[in-house]
Amino acid sequence: MMKDLGSAFLDSLTEGEEFAEEFQKYRIIYEWNSIVDASIAKDSHVQKIDNQTMKVIAKYGTTMQEIHMRAPQIIQNIEKRYGSGIVTAIRVVIGGQKKKTEEAPSYAPEEGKIPMDQNRLSSSAVAKISEIVAPIKDEKLKYELEELAEVILKKEFYMKKNGYHRCPSCNTYLEPNEKECFQCAHKRKRERIGKVKEILIDNPSLRFDEIQHIMPCTMQEMIEGKRECLQYYLGQLYCDNPSMELRYLVAMLMTGKKYSELTDEKVITMTDPYTKVGREKVFNKYKG
Fold it and tell me: Do both 162 and 194 map to the same domain?
């Protein structure tokens, strides 16, 4: 996971960790236009660099193909300018980030509400910034990065001073009493629902208390997992001649009853309305 620039820089000052590589990652992101040809740069940008893989967002499929074809050359250019091992692979996707179904809350205070003037950096921190940007030949870029580093570092000190901390999984700012950010909590919830679905596929008649013995989950997660399983298998049921095995699976998911507690007649009656023939019967009934 690519660190936040301020977080990585703060680590380099307080814990002695190497900041140079994180700084070079940000240089690659900001200097993308000078790394690739103008024809590529105008229709793409670097989103992030994680685990030596650079994720590039391309506007068009043609741009994506061109980046893929030139990937070895681009990586070679990066190694010459920024050092080896920072980027070893390039992943290209079309468009921007996917739309989120739920809006994530903002944990950190707005940038304009942080009193930057009241947060002074120590002389050692200022000296460290100057030392890091010293190799940059472009004076304008050097000045802009120096200013950016100071602002980000002041923000980082302010956040830590006021009790904010980072999500252990994605590095997002959290309120003092929060343990995990919205996105990571949602991701873990989906992982649990996925495991519930795996359990129900093998044992469709299991109740909530029985699933709890296998893995911890909430009632809502169990209901969601069962609903998604039913949606999938009801779709499979919509055919001319569904198997009895599929019918029993759907019936057990619907009722929570075991195989031995159901009969062929009850199962067929219960599942017929969801088959292709059953739906046509209902349609013709109301049509007539």
Answer: no
Which residues on neighbouring strands pair with residue 94, listed in sequence order?
58
Record the tokens describing residue 46, joined without a space.
């670097």
What is the C-alpha to C-alpha distance for residues 216 and 219, in angstroms, rounded to an integer? Answer: 10
pLDDT in tens, 45-104: 998 888 889 999 998 888 999 999 999 999 999 998 888 888 999 999 887 444 443 444
Query: Based on the domain organization, do 123 and 86 belong to the same domain?
Result: yes
Size of the chain in residues: 288
How far is Cα 144 from Cα 89, in angstroms, rounded to an integer? 28
Same domain, 213 and 75: no
What are the distances in angstroms from CA 19 to CA 5, 9, 276? 9, 6, 62
Rounded to an integer, the average pLDDT of 243-269 is 93
The b-or-e profile of 38-55 (16+ CB within 10 A means b, else e) is eebeebbebbebeeeebe
Structural domain range at position 30:
5-166
What is the pTM for the complete model shown? 0.53
Domain count, the chain: 2
* CA distance readout (Å), 159 to 12, 105, 128, 156: 17, 17, 20, 5
Is the Cβ–Cβ distance between 40 and 66 less than 8 Å? Answer: yes
